[in-house]
Amino acid sequence: MSRYKNKPNFRSHRYSSSETDSETYYPKAKRMNTKSLSKPISQKANTDNEMPTNTDKSGSSKNMTSEKSTDDLYALMMTIKQNQDSLRNSLEQRMTNLESSFKQQIQINMGKIRDEMTLEFAEFDNKLKALDNKLKQPDNSVQITTQENFAQHKLIFKNVNYTDDGDSTESLKAYVDGLLSNLDLNFTSLNVQRIGNHNNGTDQQRPKPLIVTFHNAKDRIDVLKKKRLLNTKDDYKNIYIETDRTRQERMQEANIRRIVKKIPELEFKGETDDSRTLRENILTSLNFDIVGISESHLRDEQTIDLNGYKWIGNNRKTISTNAWRGSGGVGFLIKNNVFNNFDVNIFDRNRDDILWIYLQCKYDQDVKFYFCVCYLQPERSCRGNIAQEFYDSLLSQIYLYSTGVPIFLCGDFNGRSGLQQDFDDTLDMVLPRQPIDETKNAFGDYLLDFLRDAKCCMLNGRGQKNKDNFTYVSPQGMSVVDYMIVPYGELTKVSNFEVQLVSDLVIDYNIQLSSNVRLPDHSILTCVIHFSEYEEINKLSETIHHSSNTISGNTFNRKYNISTIPRDIFNSERCVRSLQSIIDSMLHRNNIENRINTIYERLVKTLHDEMDEYMEYTDFNESTNKRKRNIGKPYWNAELQQLLLETNKTEKEFLKFKGDRRIRKQLENNYKLKRREFDKRLRQEKRKYTAERLNRIKTMNTSNPKEFWREINKLGPGKENTKIDCVVFNEGGYSNDPNIILGRWKEEYAKLFFGEFK
């Protein structure tokens, strides 16, 4: 219901141009109070129901205009009042916000100013303290500064020869000034002094360096800029100029040089030399008494350490200074039990790559042997022109040493003899050889001439056909370049000559390969030497040191359980009777020297029979035991084993085929393909195992820290219990005396402690 008496009709009302501005309609504001100036509703209703006349229309129009003007003025005043109240509230709120903002900004700025002033005061205090310390110690500061400036003006001159007047300061200064003059420098040195005593300088020793002091740093820099011109001066081309260093810096550089020199000999944790391990496993599995090695690649005094063997070598003396390892080199690995029966000495190693050793029995001085191992560089190497000199030297040594003493030669001669025989069939009666390598080179001619002159022959081609093979096998080709050589008269004393491929040995002895190892391309040549004297001595030694039992023609080592020894052992009637018989035999002095070995054997047999009956024992085969010691690769599986067998099979097919050239080429390609396939698969398996292990370690790091560190500790190399039971002297001998061993260790550690390195 409307508050107005007569509400205008906005839709039906139309404005004309004759209407004044006062009659224009404006929206009215709502009144703030409830008071109304209009008439009661009832009257308005009655009025509306009546039909107005023309006279009433004019009167009611005036009343509406008057009433309308009053309401509009009231509404306008109320709107102005409301706007003023709103403006006042807004201004009050803004003033309040500005006041609080000003307070916050003032507090923040005051805090910054306070912090900056605190820092300024602290820096000022530190400067005051520093100035105070400098004022308290003026002399020390000046002395340190003078020493630093003085050290910056020094240089080191090396390879300056000693003067005739005893290295006086004047003579040394004159020499240095003359050197500076030759470098077109127009200044002189301030002081010159030689490091060390003059007594240490001899013609055989390098002269001590000079310390040259200059007047200022500019002179020192000018000398360093022009020192390269010394190479063009004949009198000064051997002089070297370097910057001066403190004693601490020189010691640090010396230590770094020592560490760098020793790095090739170190074995870092988690890393192993798989190639060396492969060779050690092969040699240990073969279990031979004497092993000759060509191309040892050792330098200086390096040796080969193999459990159960002692190394006697001849390392090459002249090698390149830039070589990171040695070249050439020969040597022997001799089993420890050989030293129990023989005295082993180096007989001749005056020439590089030729080594002679001399074995003489300890119990019989007439039992002697000479062994020689050789290495001749390939024909196209930098030393390929010394073949004639090499064989002349070797021939003269054979003439000198083969006076009734057996000699044996072996080595890598890099000579291919083809189908020619190694003896003169018109003069010598020797079993002909059946070679498998039909190719011949120039070094092969030198070798054949040497054998004919020395009256020696090679074992290659004279053994069983199925045991002969190529001595060099690789994807690049195959050949026979390694030989075993004996005189004509000793040929019947050698048997069971065999050329064994490394791939066959890996399969036979179940040796697992690593991904970063390459199979040696040279085969292993083996033979058995038969001498009645040595066999008797060796049989006696084996009886003393090892118990053996023969079953069905096979020899087993017997190990007794000594933890439980019966009390009544050696009390049986049979044992007592046998021991009494042995005692009676020893009481008869007639022919005691000829029967002593037999008596001793009876004694040993009696004791062993009694131990076999009353004690527990275990028989084991030595070769089988060696296989168990081989550490398997964790990533080795049946697939790799099958690929290795296939590679070995294709290799044998390629080596034994003698037919059509095209078929032979196809077999060679099959062998190369299988070998590449095996190598690739081996690398993949190792990478897969390594990735799995790394992922397992990463997982353990978050889930189980204790297991993580336990796994980390397994990454190092395996523990090896090394028992040092002897010491080898420089001249080739050795000693088992504990006092001598301890003394040698003391000397070596003293040299290491005091820095006395060769």
Please report the total strand number as a whole number. 22
Quaternary = single chain
Helicity, as a percent range: 40-55%
CATH topology of the largest domain: Deoxyribonuclease I, Chain A
Calculate the mean pLDDT score and round it.
76
Ranges where pLDDT stays below 50 over 5 or more residues in a row are 1-5, 10-26, 28-58, 263-271, 540-555, 623-630
Q: Name the overall outline.
A: extended
Please tell me how large the radius of gyration is: 53 Å
| CATH class descriptor name of the largest domain | Alpha Beta
Order of neighbouring strands in the sheet with most strands: 8-9-10-11-15-12
Task: Give the terminus-to-terminus CA distance.
Answer: 124 Å
Helix and strand composition category: alpha+beta
* Proportion of residues in β-strands: 5-15%
Can you tell me the CATH architecture of the largest domain? 4-Layer Sandwich
Total domains, how many? 6
**Largest beta sheet, briefly?**
6 strands, mixed
